[in-house]
Amino acid sequence: MPHLVILYTGQLDKPADQGGSDIGQLCRSLADTMLGLQDDAGKQLFPTGGTRVLAYPAAHYAVADGSGDHAFVYLNLRMSKGRSEATQQRAGEALLATTRAHFAPIFEQRHIGITLQIDVGAEVFDGKYNNLHPLFQKN
């Protein structure tokens, strides 16, 4: 873990000149931001093999009062407990800054809302099975 899930209104999949955005590029930028974060000891905050950014467009949505083609992006970062509140805050600020920079051109074309939420806590069940981590182990 961490897992960052992005839910967004489907019209953002349009080309940029039609008020859309390259959501795939946003995913890569956010993953790179996550991989560049450090904990309080100066070590990489999130494991490379456990970092995931997934985005899902909403085909159907209602945003605000319906008076325009308003867009919305919801980002939810789920991380396991054990990181300081200051580290969590820095992670949120960095991810929000990356997201804001990505959508800056769209703010000039349309109304859009962005929400980033970080969830930390004990899991009821936390099963994992993968072979990605060994790819990034440093010897």
Q: What features would you describe in this structure?
A:
The chain has two helices and four strands, in the order βαββαβ. By secondary structure, it is α/β, with parallel strands linked by helices. It is 27% helix and 23% strand. It has a four-stranded mixed β-sheet, covered by helices on one side. The chain has helices at 23-36, 85-107; strands at residues 3-9, 52-58, 71-79, 112-120.
Relevant terms:
139 residues, alpha/beta, four-stranded mixed sheet, 27% helix, 23% strand, elongated
Summarize the structure.
By secondary structure, the chain is of the alpha/beta class. Helices cover 27% and strands 23% of the residues.
Helix-strand pattern, N to C? Answer: EHEEHE
N-end to C-end Cα span: 21 Å
- Measured as a percent range, the helix fraction is 25-40%
Q: How many H/I helices?
A: 2
Q: Globular, elongated, flat, extended or rod-shaped: what is the shape?
A: elongated
Q: In terms of quaternary structure, what is this?
A: single chain
Mean pLDDT: 90
- The radius of gyration computed from the alpha-carbon positions, rounded to a whole number of angstroms, is 16 Å
Strand order of the largest sheet: 2-1-3-4
The tally of strands reads: 4
Q: Main β-sheet: number of strands, strand sense, barrel status? A: 4 strands, mixed
Strand content: 15-25%
Flag low-confidence runs: none
Based on secondary structure, the structural category is: alpha/beta
